[in-house]
Amino acid sequence: MANLNTKIKLYLEANSKTWDNEKITFQDNSDGNGVFIASWDYDIAQPTAQQIASYETAGDTAETNAGIDATRQTQYLSWQQQMEMIYKDQKDGTTTFKDHCDKVRSDNPKE
Question: Which of 16, 58, 69, 93 has the highest count of CB atoms within 10 angstroms of its CB?
Answer without folding.
Answer: 58
